[in-house]
Design a protein that fits this description.
- This protein is mainly α.
- 57% of the residues lie in helices and 0% in strands.
- It contains five helices and no strands.
- Helix 4 crosses helix 5.
């Protein structure tokens, strides 16, 4: 078995080479660029639509009471949807229990 000789690296030579190479600090440390900004103009119709879409049920009810036809239609549509969901839930509960209504009678008439 042969033993190989140990070699030592010359760290000072590596360090001196790094010291000789000039570094452009401006190129390394780039200045942060301000974010680009865009200005958007929203039409008054779009603003009104956004306001209607984001208003609360309490505000809708208040507007409906004051005569706002759009708010009244929205409340009527929401009430009809809630009634359908209630009837559908009742029908599913009946089916789950295994009971069936009188033949020819709709679920809405069983109340």
């Amino acid at each position: 078995m042969a033993i190989s000789p140990v070699t030592q690296t010359n760290d000072t030579a590596v360090a001196s080479n790094a010291a000789v190479t000039p570094v452009n600090k401006e190129a390394v440390q780039s200045k942060p660029q301000p974010a680009a900004t865009d200005t958007v103009q929203i039409s008054s119709a779009a603003q009104a639509a956004l306001q209607e879409a984001t208003e609360t049920n309490i505000k809708t009810a208040k507007e409906a009471r004051s005569g706002d036809l759009q708010a009244q239609r929205l409340q009527a549509r929401e009430a009809a949807t809630a009634e359908e969901a209630k009837e559908s839930s009742a029908a599913r509960a009946q089916e789950a229990q295994g009971t069936q209504g009188v033949q020819g009678t709709s679920v809405g008439n069983l109340r």
